[in-house]
């Protein structure tokens, strides 16, 4: 049988590499890996507890129902991933069905990224840069742990892809699919719940500029109604209107706590946070305690806004460059290394301290770090070319980069490779497109696009 004349073996090698990396990580994880992220203290435990409660009590509660009621656990996470764990029989080890589905989704996400990049962003199918984009271990690790990141990535990628199709082709169906996928992303991880605001603003401006009338309004309302429905459910259960309690947890123990440590020192920050938690615990109602938390944390962040802005800047840098070492530690079951990283050492000892820190690594570690940081810097520069470029058309570039920046800003001082994972396919294809078209104009590459029907 004759091989099609357009067949390129490099494409087949890329596809086989994607499948191999997922399969290798899966089988390594089954034999040697650690399928729980932070277990039993945090994330994986919360998801598994929620799945068990969905099965046994029809509840989204993210803790042990027999160990006393904690209102924070009522709304800690939206219910979709817990429901997926339950439906795939993943409540008890070895979670085989869940992990197989996540690996299939991981493969599909990368291949979808490849298709989108070649179809919408004008990247050659045989571009060698596609292989460099696979150098992101977190992509394969999170397909093999009990965490919602890969499912979440699928919904985020689908939402942006169909939004791009809508912007290019104007099909109402594409917009509905985009907004429905956005709603599913909100039901998977609470970080997405604020996205309805910039998304609605972006689409309303687009409608005004294109003079489309109001026929797209029902689609735009889908994410907002999702947020409203979950928030009303949580108010009924706790007496406090909110989307997810994890927001205030992060506000207190990460954003505010880290800012205070930087501004007034660790000892005084600990006293201030302890005093606030004591006042929250003695509030007459859960709602009163949460309002007190928000008011006091926002007051401190505003008081030390210069410090927080500097930490937010560091967080943005870590979001794009972090190699994901904590993900490796968790997956391999290694003890956490709480020593300061290279950024902290640079602050205290300058370049010499950083070089001494790197020199203490085994050879394979610093080679891995050097290659990882190199690729991440290359991608960040490519992303800058994409933002400043003229291809594809402006609305599509805003849709892609706006989604990426949403995650980068919300990650804050806590940013790491894990927080980059949901939008990694977008960063990857935008960066490669930026490099591919950094010297071209719109006219040189303007061509009709097709809908994602």
Q: Would you list the SSEs in sequence order as H and E? A: HHHHHHHHHHHHHHHHHHHHH
As residue ranges, the low-confidence spans are 441-451
What global shape is seen? globular
How would you state the average pLDDT, rounded? 87
* Largest sheet descriptor: none
Rounded to the nearest angstrom, the distance between the terminal CA atoms is: 31 Å
Portion in helices: 55-70%
Question: Percent of residues in beta strands?
Answer: under 5%
Count of beta strands: 0
**What structural category arises from helix and sheet content?**
mainly alpha
**How many separate helices?**
21
Radius of gyration: 23 Å
Question: Helices and strands in order, then pairings?
Answer:
Layout: H1 9-31, H2 43-57, H3 80-87, H4 96-120, H5 129-132, H6 137-141, H7 149-169, H8 172-186, H9 196-210, H10 217-238, H11 246-264, H12 266-281, H13 286-303, H14 305-321, H15 325-332, H16 342-359, H17 363-388, H18 394-411, H19 417-420, H20 424-436, H21 442-445
Helix pairs in contact: 1-4, 2-3, 4-7, 4-20, 7-8, 7-18, 8-10, 9-10, 11-12, 11-13, 12-13, 13-14, 17-20
Q: What does this molecule look like?
A:
The protein has 453 residues and is mainly α. 69% of the residues lie in helices and 0% in strands. It has 21 helices and no strands. It has helices spanning 9-31, 43-57, 80-87, 96-120, 129-132, 137-141, 149-169, 172-186, 196-210, 217-238, 246-264, 266-281, 286-303, 305-321, 325-332, 342-359, 363-388, 394-411, 417-420, 424-436, 442-445. Helix 8 (172-186) runs parallel beside helix 10 (217-238), helix 11 packs antiparallel against helix 12 (266-281) and helix 17 packs across helix 20. Mean pLDDT is 87; it is low at 441-451.
């Amino acid at each position: 049988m004759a091989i099609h004349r357009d067949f390129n073996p490099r494409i087949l090698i890329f596809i086989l590499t994607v499948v191999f990396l997922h399969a290798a990580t899966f089988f390594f994880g089954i034999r040697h890996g650690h399928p729980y992220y932070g277990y039993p203290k945090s994330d994986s435990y919360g998801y598994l507890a929620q799945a068990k409660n969905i099965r046994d009590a029809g509840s989204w509660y993210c803790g042990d129902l027999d160990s006393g009621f904690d209102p924070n656990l009522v709304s800690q996470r939206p219910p979709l991933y817990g429901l997926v764990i339950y439906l795939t029989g993943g409540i008890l080890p070895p979670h085989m069905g869940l992990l197989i589905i996540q690996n299939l989704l991981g493969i599909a996400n990368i291949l979808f990224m490849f298709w989108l990049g070649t179809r919408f962003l004008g990247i050659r199918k045989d571009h060698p840069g596609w292989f460099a984009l696979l150098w992101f271990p977190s992509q394969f690790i999170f397909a093999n742990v009990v965490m919602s990141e890969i499912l979440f990535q699928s919904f985020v990628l689908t939402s942006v892809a169909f939004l791009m199709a809508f912007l290019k082709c104007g099909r109402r169906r594409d917009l509905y699919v985009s907004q429905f996928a956005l709603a599913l992303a909100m039901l998977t991880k609470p970080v997405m719940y604020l996205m309805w605001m910039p998304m609605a603003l972006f689409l309303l401006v687009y409608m005004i500029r294109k003079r489309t009338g109001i026929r797209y309004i029902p689609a735009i309302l889908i994410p907002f109604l999702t947020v409203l429905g979950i928030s009303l459910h949580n108010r009924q259960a706790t007496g406090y209107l909110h989307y997810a309690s994890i927001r205030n947890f992060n506000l207190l123990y990460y954003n505010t706590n880290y800012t205070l440590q930087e501004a007034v020192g660790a000892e005084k920050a600990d006293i201030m946070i302890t005093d606030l938690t004591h006042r929250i615990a003695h509030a007459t109602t859960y709602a009163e305690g949460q309002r007190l938390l928000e008011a006091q944390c926002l007051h401190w962040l505003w008081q030390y806004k210069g410090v927080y802005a500097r930490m937010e800047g560091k967080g943005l840098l870590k979001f794009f460059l972090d190699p994901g070492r904590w993900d490796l530690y968790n997956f391999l079951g290694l003890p956490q290394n709480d020593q300061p990283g290279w950024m902290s050492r640079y602050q205290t000892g300058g370049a010499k301290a950083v070089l001494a820190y790197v020199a203490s690594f085994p050879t394979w570690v610093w080679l891995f770090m050097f290659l990882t940081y190199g690729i991440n810097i290359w991608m960040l520069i490519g992303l800058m070319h994409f933002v400043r470029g003229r291809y594809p058309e402006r609305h599509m570039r805003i849709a892609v980069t706006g989604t990426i920046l949403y995650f980068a800003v919300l990650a804050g001082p806590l940013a790491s490779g894990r927080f980059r994972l949901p939008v990694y396919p977008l960063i990857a294809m935008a960066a490669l497109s930026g490099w591919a078209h950094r010297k071209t104009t719109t006219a040189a590459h303007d061509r009709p696009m097709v809908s994602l029907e």
